[in-house]
Batch of 3 targets.
Target 1
Amino acid sequence: MASFEQHIHDKPTTFISKYIFSFDHKVIGKQYLWYGIFFLLVGGLMALLIRWTLAFPGHAMPIVGHLLFPATNGVVPPDSYAMLFTMHGTIMIFFAITPILIGAFGNFCIPLMIGARDMVFPSLNMMSFWVAVVSGLLLLAGLITPLGAAAGGWTSYPTLSTLLGSPGVGQTLWTMSIFVLGISSLMGAVNYITTIIVLRAPGMGYFDMPLTIWGVWMTSILNAIFIPVLGAGCLLLIFDRVFGTTFFLAGATATQGGGDPLLFQHVFWIFGHPEVYILILPGWGIVSDLLSFFARKPAFGAKATAMCMVSITVLSTVVYGHHMFTTQMSPLLTQTFMTLTMTISIPSAIFFVNWLGTLWKGSIRFTSPMLFSIGVIFVFGLGGLTGLYLATVTTDLYLHDTYFVVGHFHYTMAASVLLAGFAGIYFWMPKMFGVLMNEFWGKVHFWLSFLGLNGVFMGMMLAGYGGMHRRLYDPFVYEFLQKLIPVNTFITYSSLLMGGAQVIFVINFIYSIVKNKKVEDNPWEVGTLEWTIPSPAPHYNFKEIPVVKCGPHELGNPALKDRDFQYQTEELVRG
Amino acid sequence: MVRTLFYNSVFFLFTFPAFAAAKKDLSFWEMIAPPEDISENGHLITWLFNYVTGANVFFMTLVILGIVVFSYLYSAKRHKKAYYTYGDKKAHILFVAACCLAVFLGVDMNITRISNEDYTKVFNKPPDPTKEDVVRIEVLAQQWMWKFRYPGEDNVFNTADDVVTLNDLRVPINKKVYFQITSKDVIHAFYIPNIKRKIDALPGKITWMWTKFMKAGNWEIACAEMCGTHHYKMQAFLTTYTQDDFDKWYKNAQKYAELENNPEDPTVFWGWKWY
Ligand SMILES: [Cu+2]
Ligand SMILES: [Cu+2]
């Protein structure tokens, strides 16, 4: 289906052309991976500081606290606390999850899984990464400005995020950083969409693509449509801050202006709700594939799963109002957004039945990628179901802006996405670096993370149910929240456990790469195109462009003789 | 530096258990229980919450059972040969469709219908001050305090006889209380945990909320929307009185208002004509 010849380029020889300004999608994917893991650690450390403050108000966090806040004897001061949760949210969403799930897996997997030699626009690809680096630097630069980084929450609602509420240059840098990151994401999205459409190997129809590719594809479409919306909002905010316009300032006493702060919320959530799916769709794809690979049978209802991804992509664009119920929109809109949001549970229900259907009567191999994938079913189940309370307007009146919301979206956006991301890293490690990670420590990493994150996010939901609202430096100035101190302590212990578990991952990851013990080309015995070539993948990927003759999940076919799977390049064996 | 670090860490190790032991006398369920509901209609929210919880527990149990039972029965050790199916047989498709319908019609549309009914017929249906006896209060949020304005003797807002309080809301029980809310600077949210409700306070816009308190006592009001560094301190106190006690307080406050409100000072008139 390739509409033009894909040449084999010479191997880059200099260090710079090979590792820094590389055109190779595999190198760019790895660059995104390192970038994402770096920010994941920064954002995670911020989360621990936040948790520490909530569990032990007024007490210094050992070592880290003393290094970062010597002026207050190691205790996080209130203004730094606001910066911490703002930066934590921003970093995790835009600088950790996005680069890992979309940047790293998108780049690495698309050409390999559709049988192409590279992305269709390699230089755009390289630019996309380096623009993301600029954006990351802009964000971090905020930390060293006199008034510190942005501190208005990751949603940065005006008028708090205008000069009225955040006079520091940090907020401007934050807004610019998000705008620049949008450009990077947009370049990536255009590249992904085009590559998937024009560079699929001959014989590969859309339903012959692995579900991972479906996920990344839908994500890229949402990115291409909605990132510009966020960009527009950011641009207007920059105008308000730098050039004195009043798009988001309304005419009350202290906020002269003919604009409307709610306008930003509309713009933000038109992007913001699809963003949830932008983050989770690649994860869904990866999980749907891996469940089939390790249950050794075809993905149950794979076409339905793909079509559900499409319908969720469409639906996600028309439900954003559920984030704004407490702004008292018209009841007609409330009802519409509530009903539309509920319809998302139809495709979601199909996902779950299909995932469990894939496990049903399988021959399950509990490898570490498989454990992480099964973990996703559990945490996304909890995350999805608890969304019902928030889509329902009357229960949202109570739960909105409480820790219940925090717990809910961490289950969907943090827990599910992280577990899916780890599943992907463990699974494609041979293809990326030519090595396998240690299985035993991989499983320990899974169980500790799984315990930790459930403790954290379940605890958050309980605290929110108990009435504890968000973004409080010290919740216990309120008498009615004082009984929640033990719950908060428990959350913090769980977060320490979860954080500690990631140390195991980092050591395992680095150690396997350094030790460099070669694995065979197809250690997982899977038939998708990336496993037909050597591990790690050579710089030109495929010597011959493969011809696809069957689907990606041909496992467990009883007509097969000497192995239980077949490659996508083989004619489907019939009994 | 190293020494303070050391001492702090040691101090911390010893205070650690103290935190963990705090409030041990409460049971787990008492600990996470929501604030006591003192409103006439809060039970509607509680009921719907519990209904959704029931449905969620049911579906989550199915998911967990699916994971656990299939993992046990179909592990490679126990189940050598996988069943080769794409899940596209008629029975499979019917099963998937039945699950979807059960979730969507059985639960989602039910919740949506009930919630919408509660919202349009109760929570979002403003009382009519011309027809019934309601207490009207204007709320002004600003960094980082709450101001409350009562209409005073003439029953007209933004006049010199208005009773104005700071972080101190007093209302009678068994009577509808009708708030109009706005913000002076950034977005805040007027959150009364004990009635299970909150509503944004938006600069340049007036939002409203009504409720009927049913129990006398002392409670708390919070700001639920991030509004800057001291968001966490934006706390007000709520006193619910019996009608007699309220009248006593109001009469007294009225006297002070007339004495203290200086009609020459324009900052006194931050209120607005009731909408
Ligand atoms: Cu949403
Ligand atoms: Cu606030």
Target 2
Amino acid sequence: MYRYDEFDERLVRERVAQFASQVARRIDGSLTDAEFLPLRLKNGLYLQLHSYMLRIAVPYGTLHARQLRQLARIADEYDRGYGHFTTRTNLQFNWSKLKDVPTVLGLLADVEMHCIQTSGNCIRNVTADHFAGVAHDEIEDPRPIAELIRQWSTLHPEFEWLGRKFKIAVSGATHDRAVVKSHDLGVRIVRDPASGETGYEILVGGGLGRTPFAAKVLREFLPREDLLAYLEAVLRVYNLEGRRDNKFKARLKILVHELGIEALRALVEEEFAHIDKARVNADPQEQARIAAYFAPPAYEDLPEVSRKLEDAQIRDPELARFVEHNLFRHKKRGYTAVTISLKPIGGTPGDITSEQMRAVADLAEKYSFDELRVTHAQNLVLPNVKLDDVAEVYEALKAHDLATANIGRITDIISCPGLDYCSLATARSIPIAQVLSHHFADPEKQKQIGEVSIKISGCINACGHHHVGNIGILGLEKKGVESYQITVGGDPSENYALGELLGPGVPAEYVPEAVDKVVSVYLAERQQGETFIETYRRIGLAPFKAAFKEIADVAA
Amino acid sequence: MLLLDREGAKADLWTRVETLDISADKVIVPSALLQDALAARRPGQQIGVAIDNTERAAALEPYFGALALVVIAFPTGYNGRGFSIARQLRERGFSGLLRASGPLVSDQFPHALACGFDEIELPDASAERQPVEQWLAAAARISLNYQRGYNYGAVANILEQRRAARRAGAANV
Ligand code: HEM
Ligand code: SF4
């Protein structure tokens, strides 16, 4: 994992002092409320329905134990004893007090963390594949360039005042686990077939929200050394040409849509040609310096199969279920990546208590070379566990209500905070997630349904990624009552697709039945080995629509 | 209006005109009049141009040698287009004075300086709340940056520092 050097550390400390000064200048009237607002947002401080909310960056979803322990301490001393992991792998505290924020920022800086650019119209926290560095299907570990981009985008003087937020994701594997195509800019590490060299495919203009678009390829192959100069060109063109007349049309996706990808490419390439690359790019030695922090840990040579784990599974069917659902194939023989579900039946997706944080931190230290990941699906990962240790890890997780065996299953629901917290919400989303989770709680039923994703947003902004849920649920308000629109067929992976609407919105109490109908169509129609999304692609929307109509007619 | 640069407040020696009445020694004209103003320029007279942030650096490129000042308008503080225009002007070789004009906040002073601005022209309503000392303090508050090619004043570039440390390390072996 990356560790700060003296410069990284000093910059973060100075940023804390800068924020304290901004608060002081708001209080003494030097800054108006309108002037202070973007400054506080750039430091991750939102005003929600009941309180301030502080969003802490977890760059490319990577954490170590000491950091998670510090988050637990902040949760206990300055919040209400829990935090919430988001779809952008950040951590939110929902009950922050403005007067505490500078102290909390100082505590974060003590463990090399910050809230820089977790909100506001600037380049946001960069996200990555949560199995980066350990995935069996990886071309190259994307974390070194994610860290390079983190540094480059931090307090970028030219790009702190963009027309709208700008989100970047990186992936180094053939399978896309980072939802690259829903980002303003995606970087995919690819291998040039001719030279065998790795470089970058650059995609732009993805986004969810009220006008969802899939990102398009801007550059098929960018040589590694030119990454920063090219990013600078893209951001400059966006800053200059992106719309400023309407907040809802200010994202890069709208510019791509209105100009067309070819015209945008011409502008970017022209700007890129003007940039003095030697003046802007990082030295190869700097890239190597960062990459060295991500060298593989001291793995042992282990057999492919763990007899110990096989035997334990025979004794404990629940462990067997956990192994089946929550383990991911590791690059290194004898190791596995264990996903810790933050989706207990009936819980709030992504929530974690301070006591659970400490337990997970202990496990990371003891069993995973001190490493942790946050996933965009609002779960945690122990990326480096020996197969021999899985049963022990499982027992420890169980003791803290963290052993739910449902990764990728129907109860592994993504949900935004919705009307329980968010001032923009048009409907509740957490209670819908909780009801569905109870509804599909039976492990046998979940196993039978197999791999499927439900994603819920409490308004059109789509923080819960509902557009790319296999089953997407969007909470709206219709004549003073909450109404839920359901889509099917969304896919966040390399087979990216936006879900299609089943019909009119239904009241909250009909949502479980409606989802039941959708699932029944799949169960009735599926062929040998087909997942939900595969069946959907084969049979199309019509059968799902027909089944849904029965519910919609009753609800209407 | 308050005019300030890295040293503090300064007198504005420039006269803004909207017509070709360019009798003053230092005049700022709108971009539509730039060509005519340069043609009518007296020996020793300095011409500047004021542009909106919808105008582009490339349009000024033919005049770089003759232009002494470019003023870029910031319609609001949070519209940051002017930063990219400034950066482009510098990158394409403009070496005259660069002025940002509009209701910026002092926390944006380092951004403006890093992108190549020399001075800020601030409306009175902003200047009354944010005195010059706050601007000078803001410029010095963050002493480092990660972006190569955006150096100004005493701000140290982190990548350059690391490179220097590598060289020194290599020299010591
Ligand atoms: C609670 C306070 C929050 C507010 C006020 C808020 C606000 C917004 C807004 C206005 C958008 C639409 C932006 C646009 O389309 O330009 C958005 C999108 C988004 N937000 Fe949030 N959000 C909040 C919480 C969250 C949380 C908790 C998550 C993660 C669970 C999240 C993740 C996202 C994502 C992934 C998008 C989609 C962005 C896209 O279009 O690419 N946000 N948010
Ligand atoms: S989707 Fe809407 S309700 Fe949910 S967190 Fe985002 S802004 Fe709030």
Target 3
Amino acid sequence: MISTQINETALVNQAQNGDRNAYGELVRTHSQGVLNVVYRMCGNKHLAEDAAQEAFIQAWLKLSSYQPRASFRSWLYRIAVNSAIDMLRKEKRILPDAVEDYFLMDPSPGPESMLASTERAELVRKAIVTLPDASRAVLVLREYEGLSYQEIAETIDIPIGTVMSRLNYARKLLKEKLKMHLFSYAEAEHV
Amino acid sequence: MSDHILEQLGPYLDGELHGKSLQKVKLHLTECITCQEEYTSLENLSATLQEAPLPDFPSPEDFASDLALLLPRKPALPIREKALEFGWWLAPIGLIAIWMFISTTNLVSGAITFANSLGVLNDTSTWLVSGSAPETYWSAALGQFGFLSGNNLQIAEMAEAITRITIPQIVWQVSLATLYLSWMAIWWARHERQGLGQALES
Ligand SMILES: [Zn+2]
């Protein structure tokens, strides 16, 4: 296909001049990545779809402010992360405590009760959502999008040292939140 | 045994360590159980995180076509570009305004000069037309040396006076016209390109 050969910079340029088809191509390329990021950020499928749409609308509106010194993906993910945080905040205003309480009130199954993988996945999802915004964004970009520290620094616009400390902090919190389940998981693997 | 390297384990797991710091962590891990355990727990955490599946999201095609319906017509221009765009459309109006201003000034100054020469205005009004009385250095000089005399001198003086007034007028009118035509040409080029872009789009 010809369109895949056109490099991203050219597409971005065309889109900046108002070319909707070029932007559509960029959306197709990055939709799954953005959906993943916002889903991991807010832990809810419908919120994620709304946040992803909002992110792409915002990106279209702000497109002329994009400068190619950062990669387009970094620029886009930054908008996506903020969109997810906003969406979650709005949702919490409408349904206060809906997200956090569910996790906190979850009757902790002891190490003896083995969790089904779907349940474990559910706990992980909720544990991530309860992380502070700043640490959560760094963790999601690293663990789920596999971005390098440099790329994360570029995306969130923070120094690499801060990426490292936020990531350490997020992992520390997650290990505490998931301690029992992690232990049971690890034991299950070694039985 | 050296101090623990707990802070370095995350970067080590993420493949972000190189050179000396990488060697240091590798060496430490061979001899420290505390850090080994911490590293294993990080690996486990990462594996657990990866385990959480993604829901079924719309395909890139579906997502893009849904989004296309929501996108505003054109991306908004930032303020700086808006100002430039505004200035661009203001340019021809500015040129016409300058042309009208200079023409009016010339007309008024011409009328005053004419009135002055008829003696309608008294001396106090001559400041209005200071410098408007055309100088005729060259004709006068030629007359002094006897190259021109009588009618010829008068004709030469008139010709020089007219040239001194009209040449600058022609020059600025032509420059303004050139600027205006350039603006028209650029506008036309931009318009054509936009039309072409839209034609390609549809
Ligand atoms: Zn150690």
